[in-house]
Automatic annotation (TrEMBL):
Source organism: Arctia plantaginis
Assembly, per entry: Self-associates forming complexes of several hundred monomers.
Domain of life (superkingdom): Eukaryota
Location of the Myb/SANT-like DNA-binding domain: 6-81
The protein's name: Regulatory protein zeste
Length: 270
């Protein structure tokens, strides 16, 4: 039977496991191989957490339920951190709300820049780095981990530049057949493939792709074997139960036959 209330020891264990695997803690895993690794990791975590449930004091959950517990915990920490930050900049607000040690660990784990929340011991990310790295929001709470727009170092032109049709045509003619890397700075990287290289060398190495596919196929075969073994074990259990039932039925029929013979013997003696 599933118990839903997790104990503090189980929550500390959950946080410790996810601190060792930040990718799993954030939850941004893509691809079939990543999904398989995520599923296996949560199964291992679930086994250890359920084994530490104690004598009714902890929770016994499925891997999906433990994942939901972690997502809810992250969401509550983000909301609490946002509320603390809002109170800091609200005049006359003296609400004394503090993050616990575990909540600070979660915030450092899921946020790239926790200095905006006033956490001590965390270096503040420079404005130039944040302005050059575009952030992709994947949820309503992701903006809590980003830097204020006022710190961005990007400068956009305010006046539109107007070019004549002749200048545009000359630029297009000059650009045809020109070096794609011309005009680029020393720190910029061109996305155009290098000339003279074969196609298989321009992207990911073919051997690496084949190795990944082979590993993925081996993992799939291993999972299928586990499923078949589990199915076979269940079938053996059902077969044994059916044999036991038939044996009991046979013994019952034998006893009934003996009882009928005894009754007939008594009746004939009278």
């Amino acid at each position: 039977m599933e118990r839903r209330k997790a104990s503090p020891e189980q929550l500390n264990m959950l946080l410790h496991f996810l601190e060792e695997d930040k990718e799993l803690a954030i939850g941004k895993i893509t691809g079939i191989e990543g999904r398989i690794r995520q599923t296996n990791a949560w199964i291992k975590i679930t086994e250890k957490l359920n084994a530490n449930s104690g004598f009714g004091s902890g929770a016994i959950k499925t891997p999906d339920k433990w994942q939901q517990t972690w997502r809810d915990w992250k969401s509550n920490v983000k909301k609490k951190a946002f509320k603390i930050r809002k109170n800091r900049f609200t005049p006359g607000c003296n609400a004394n709300i503090q993050l616990t040690e575990a909540e600070e660990k979660i915030l450092r784990l899921i946020c790239t820049n926790t200095s905006v929340f006033g956490l001590s011991g965390v270096p503040e990310t420079s404005a130039i780095t944040n302005s050059m790295a575009p952030s992709q929001s994947t949820g309503p709470g992701d903006d809590l981990c980003s830097v204020d727009p006022s710190t961005s170092g990007l400068k956009w032109p305010t006046d539109a530049q107007h070019f004549s049709a002749a200048e545009i045509e000359m630029s297009l003619q000059d650009g045809v057949g020109a070096d794609p890397d011309a005009g680029m700075g020393p720190n910029e990287v061109s996305s155009a493939p290098a000339a003279g290289k074969p196609l298989w060398k321009r992207g990911r190495p073919v051997r690496l792709v084949h190795d990944r596919l082979l590993n993925l196929e081996e993992e799939r075969i291993r999972i299928e074997k586990q499923k078949l073994l589990e199915k076979k074990r269940c079938n053996n259990i059902r077969l044994k139960m059916e044999k036991d039932r038939l044996e009991i039925e046979r013994q019952r029929n034998i006893l009934l036959e003996k009882l009928l013979v005894a009754v007939e013997t008594v009746a004939t003696q009278r």
